[in-house]
User: What shape does this take?
Amino acid sequence: MIASFLHRSFVAPNMRTIPRQELAAQLDDHLFQLHEAEGQGLYPKSATAYLDDWASDERGWLRKYYPPGQDEPHYDLTSPAEHAIEWLDSLGQRAFIGTESRLMTVFDLLKQIVDGTELNPRTRIEELQRRKAEIDAEVAKIREGRLDLMEPTQVRERFLQMTATARELLSDFRALDQNFRALDRNVREQIATWDGGKGELLQQVFGWRDLIADSDEGRSFRAFWNLLMSPSRQDELSRLLERVMQLGPIRELEPDGRIRRIHYDWLEAGEVTQRTVARLSAQLRRYLDDQAWLENRRIMELIRNVEQKALALRGQVPDRAFAEVDEPAPELGLPMERLLYTPAFKADIRNLTMEDAEVDIVTDALYEQVHVDQARLLANIRRALQTRAQVSLAMLVEERPIEQGLAELATYLKLATQEVSAVIDDERTELVHWTDGAGRQRRASLPLVIFTLREHTTDE
Assistant: This one.
């Protein structure tokens, strides 16, 4: 009775959790059918009593828990109970035993292993070229109108294997969730009986969690969850399921309609596992908060004890020194602070007569330095922008000619990048003309520089 009911309520419909009232109603219907067939005295207890008995620690066939924010308890099938039901289900004679699809799966898995571990680039390239040739040949056949379709038997065989694998995934979620719940239970027990330091406990707990997360099943779960959380993968899976369910050989099997939304059941089961990990983190955070509160309370008790003793001794001047301190601070002499030995420098003084140089040194370059007044150039820019919203560097130089050559032009570029609002377009150029001190015409090709009244943005 127990195995048949749990199989019909959890395993067959691929259900992850069921509320108490809904599960009790299903069990009432199940017991009513048994009473009609076998009599009232076969199973005398109520449905809720059976559920509480199956969820007790002595049985452990169901897990009873309260989801966050809900007052009604929910039930979930435990992983050992699910394995027992699957074993009982495997004892029966199957109406259809597919071997071709499983053989093809074996070949595909072996190919993936070999291709994924091949270190020789030439071998991998040859394999890819072989696949490309096969694909090109298949495309050519389709263009000629020759389509190789699966037989109805092959379609049904692969569909049954897909549904079995899909249901096994939910069983894997239950096993992984049980591992994390066992870790959470161990953490709570350790916290309740721990009398050591916080660092040792956290190191031990995180070691347990990393052991599960870094295991093969933990890494496989992370890869599966990342793949399932992709919106494109979800849409693709929905489209594939919808197309497969519309095939004639599949409709003959009369499959369960919940197969259409099997990936949503996976998401729900994965969220339950993620919430279990979140509860573990919350438990650790609560432990740290409690430890901090206890330590602060102990500190406040010590401070108040000192204050009370100080008040009790107020007015009682001791007849001897209350406390003596040899030095206000220790005198430290670190070995590395000692300077290395440096030999004394002995100056080499020679009595020589300085002679005049035979060649005259040209010092004109020292007195020909050019100083550009940035304030004057800023004033030129502001006057030009008083009558317009923007002005280019070429127009500004045309209105107010350059007086100090390249130095003044470079100062304009410096102001455009540091002092004023300006836009510099590297893809466009402009010519700037001026006359040097010798009366010669000069020109320079520069990126387009535009001074503006407001701050420029990247879009501009």
